[in-house]
Amino acid sequence: MSGASSMPPAAELAVCALCPKLCRHVCPVAVATGHEAAAPSNMAQHPWRFLRGSGTAELALQAASLCVECGACTAQCELHEPLGVRLAAVRHALSAPAWPQPLGAVEGEGRHVAVEADSRRWAEALARHLGEPVARLRTEDHLGAEALAGPLGAPAHVAALRALLSGRVVVVADHRSLAAVQAAGLQGVHLAELAPPPGAGPVFHPCKGPRLAGEAAPEALACCGAGTALESAHPALAATLRTEQARRLGEHAAGGDTSPGQAPPAPVPTRCPDASCGRTLAQAGLLVLDPVDALLAPSS
Amino acid sequence: MPTPPPLQTSVAALDLAAYGRDLWPRDTLRMVEGLAPTLPAEVAWPEDANQVRAALERAREQDRVVVPYGAGSGVCGAAAGRSRALVVDLKRMNRVWDLDPVARTVRAQPGVLGQHLEDWLGRRGFMTAHSPSSIWCSTVGGYVASRSAGQFSSRYGVFDDMLLAARAEAPAGRLAGGTWTPEGQEDLLPLLCGSEGALGIVTETLLRVAPLPATRWLCGYAFPNLQSAWTAMRRVMQAGLWPSVMRLYDPLDTRLNKATRGGRESHAGDGVFHRIRQAVARVPALQGHLADLPLALPGLLNRITGGLGDEVALILGFEGDPAVVDAQVALAAPLLQAGRDLGPGPGERWFAHRHAVSYKLAPVFIAGGFVDTMEVAATWSRLEALHDGVRAAIGRHGLVMAHFSHAYPEGCSIYLSFAGKGRLDVYDALWADALQAAREAGGTITHHHGVGQLKARAAAREAGAAVRVWREIKRTWDPEGRMNPGRLFPEDEPEAPGPPPPAGEGPVYAVDEDSLLAEVDPLAEPRLLEEALAARGLALRIRPDRPLARWLTALERGAHDAWEAPVFAVQVRFADGASARVGPAPRSAAGPDLRAALLRRATPELVQVPVRRQDPDAPDRVIRPPAGAPDRRDLRPTWHKDDRWGFAAELAPLAEVAGGEPARGTAPRRHPGHLP
Question: What is the mean pLDDT of the segment spanning A101-110?
Fold first, then answer.
């Protein structure tokens, strides 16, 4: 634990901790899991108690890790309390600091650099799509995104990223790598914008993922939880969230909206513009065609 | 056959901590003071009725008490943590299905949040119209448990009126009530509704729904004082109109809401609490002390605010079929002449921000105070005494203001909001005085927040010997006393004495002309009752076909429309001579509705029934409704039978809206069972 020096002051959490749960109905984690601990007000209570000397750091961190930072609570709140941002600060303050992995070398030539964040290799396919050479950068930690989001900001890593990628168009296929690129002040573009997945099927936009032009998120859908603290700290609840969001996506795709608790309709082909979220949804049983898979498909 | 999934449970500290309290402000105050809540032993999240049964079995095997839990928005401590408890959280039972647009019903599991239910219905053109200020953080099961009421209750009824049937799992077995009552068995729905988790766990409900309104009309009025506004409200309700909104603010609430301003712009965010919060945010050292001075001097504050003037604001709204709304607005206009028309602004502002008041709670606690609400109710004839008495009692300890909503032909609820210095002794003293004052003024201690821990003793005093009936039924369904024990009526509370036998000859013992209520002999033949009432220029609103004691006990759920209240107070005498009177008008949430159960188990002495004024020279307007007329439920004739609707003479414009040929007829006697 790194101490509480960068925790938000208790006063900032008090309004949410003492709130009569006025945003629980829009919180994707609270709605999907039904767990009272996941009501945003309860997420705020443990850090608030800890800061006032009547709670533990362990519970504070567990509670803060229930948040997926989708921002739905802030959007709902008449006082616009940024609870997600504050709980992220709590997590960073109470977690062991994340350290970025050393950056690899950029392989190949080209104005564009494809950031490959999982086992799929798609730089060549993008080159064919664009009709020009595309370089490749492989990363196992999304370009150190977690460290970059931490309180220290990893300035040396930022400098290394800039030295490696300045002057290039950095193409990413997942929102975490995109966040890292943006945190370093580099020019980033999402693969889904350069090579949108084909097909006219329904579209699911993850809360942090890029939006394709003219597409809006279905109102019923929020964050799928991919890449959030929920996945690592509360894997069972993360799985429940994925399943619920997949069910809602299936409903939306089917053109209807069944009851919140009703059995999901059969999965439908879905294109998701974000590789990491798409994979998360695929784990929940959806037939996801994300932009990398679309790019690598034989017909591309 | 696939193996059903196991019941999901947890003993993790993070989970247990979430069930240590509901939204009882006393527990919030404790939390602010750093006091640890009592935590349960385990939490279960059932997904269907079978898993609820499994949870009850688990509690029995492990010798635990059971606390059913919805979204924990109760404000009286009914679902607060208790040791040795298995909390059964129902939010994973959140299915809604089987909307019947013709019968106007829908089925819902108990864990669905109110807002999600309305969203689901709204996408299909319907609503329950149950809109409590907690709609974002409360569940259908909670509405059943606490006998909830929403902001549009004057038109659509309280949740009791919407609930047509329910199933529940109790330790002794599966029970069903309302229209799902098994043939030959006692209808337990009135006992389940308001049982606060102490009888069984609701697993399924059948609810009334209404079509989304085609139009909504809202208007504000400024009245010179409370008394003139009460008169206007009473006249509107007793005229047989059914406003969706009727909210009267006392002088302080009127000024804080700037409700007599006519504009549409929002004043949210510029209120006194908002300014307190901003000040605290700028100067952290003020936290916990900002409210010290003003809230420590409640008498001074109340005197200052009492000098603000007497003008009060009323918001009135009608909604539904445009032609029906137009007719109602026209009929209401002469009844509101004492008020100054403020236009639609105040009503539209209220509608747009009707749930926002809850955002103002946390800043008061942060500033070192507490804030709470109390919702009492009484007949029109007792309303002023109730208001004055409870307000004075609260005012000795905190700053108090009030509004009047949930209006009925018979009476009205008073919703008191108050803030005090954030100390448990102040909080407890305030509530003790307020509950005592409500009882002394002849009101019910709760209109729709329920009982919980806060009002358990006061509820037992209000019920008196009727608690015996509750205990008998609880012993049958919960023989080991595992279900939220002691929450409704404490075992050690002495039985409050009941009323004396009714005085006089009967069959009409007394008439409350202001509230249009008659206290009558429940064993009298209906014809004798009608003759006695007619001699006073009155008529029964419901015309039973047999003596009321027999008629009421045979009355099936759904036999009358939601707005047709057949009976209010019931007075009985037990074999040992003890008496009890329950069911105070206009509505009460002080525990379950014990009236029918009492009539079956003790000797009925008196019932209080609604009446209407009947001028023999102004006969009802009777029509044969044509095809294409608005639905009877949206037009609310004064009475109806198969092919004829009758409208009281003063409601003749509504008969015009219905159209159709004039017909002859009189209000029919009505059988207890389902009506056509």
Answer: 94
A52, A14 contact by CB (below 8 A): no
| Share above pLDDT 90 across residues of chain B, in percent, rounded to a whole number | 80
**Are A11 and B284 a contacting pair at CB < 8 A?**
yes
Q: How far apart are CA B422 and CA B397, in angstroms?
A: 11
Last residue of a domain, one of B440, B460, B490: B440
Query: Cα(B504)–Cα(B502) distance, rounded to whole angstroms?
Result: 7
- The kind and range of the H/E element at B420 are strand B411-421
Contact list, B116 vs chain A (CB under 8 Å): 25, 31, 260
B512 in Cβ contact with B526 (< 8 Å):
no
Residue in B14, B112, B134 nearest the CB of A63: B14
If asked whether residues B182 and B221 sit together in one domain, one would say no
Evaluate whether residue B282 is within a structural domain: yes
Tell me whether residue B350 is in a domain.
yes
**Tell me, what's the pLDDT at B668?**
87
Partner residue facing B92 (CB), from A24, A34, A78? A34
Q: Is the pLDDT of residue A261 over 60?
A: no
d(CA B128, CA B118): 7
Q: Is the pLDDT of residue B510 over 50?
A: yes
Q: Work out the minimum CA distance from A89 to partner chain B, whole angstroms.
A: 19
CA distance to partner chain A, nearest, from residue B545 (Å): 42
The pLDDT confidence band at residue B268, using thresholds 50, 70 and 90, is very low
Question: Does pLDDT of A246 surpass 60?
Answer: yes
- CB neighbour list of residue A292: distance below 8 Å, 6 or more residues apart: A118, A120, A122, A173, A191, A275
Q: Domain check: are B15 and B37 in the same one?
A: yes
> B201: which 2 tokens?
């766990």
Residue pLDDT, tens place only, A156-204: 999 999 999 999 999 998 878 888 998 899 988 888 778 877 664 444 4
What pLDDT is attached to residue A7?
80
Q: Do A261 and B23 touch (CB under 8 A)?
A: no
Q: Please indicate whether, in this complex, the C-beta atoms of B71 and A24 are within 8 angstroms of each other.
A: yes
Q: What is the pLDDT of residue A213?
A: 43
Contact A50, A221 (CB under 8 A): no
- Single-letter code of the amino acid located at A208: K
Q: Is the domain of B100 the same as that of B222? A: no
Query: Is residue A172 a contact partner of residue A190, using CB atoms and an 8 Å limit?
Result: yes
Q: What is the number of structural domains in chain B?
A: 4
For residue B94, give both structure tokens: 């959140």
Instruction: Provide mean pLDDT across the span B517-540.
Output: 96
For residues B313 and B403, state if they share a domain: yes
β-partners of residue A270 are: A288
In this structure, the answer to whether residues B207 and B243 fall within a common structural domain is no
Angle between helices A10-17 and A40-51 (to 10 degrees): 140
> Does B355 sit within 8 Å of A261, measured CB to CB?
no
Whether residue B262 lies inside any domain: the answer is: yes
Residue A155, preceding peptide bond in cis (omega within 30° of 0): no
Of B308, B334, B170, B324, nearest to B250 (Cα)?
B308
CA distance B281 to chain A (A): 7
Domain co-membership, B310 together with B384: yes
CATH code for the domain in which residue B522 is found: 3.30.465.10
**Per mean pLDDT, which range of A40-49, A283-292, B442-451 is the poorest?**
A283-292
Q: Is residue B487 part of a domain?
A: no
Examine the domain organization and report whether B171 and B258 are in the same domain.
no
Instruction: Tell me which of B575, B594, B613 is where a domain ends.
Output: B613
> Same domain for B179 and B243?
no
The span from the CA of B438 to the CA of B371, in Å, is 19
Distance CA B426, CA B370 (A): 10
Q: Among all chains, which residue has been given the structure tokens 């008490």?
A: B65
**CATH number (domain holding residue B220):** 3.40.462.40
Residue whose pair of structure tokens reads 């006089």 in the numeric block: B504
- Domain hosting B138: range is 96-211
CATH code for the domain in which residue B27 is found:
3.30.43.10
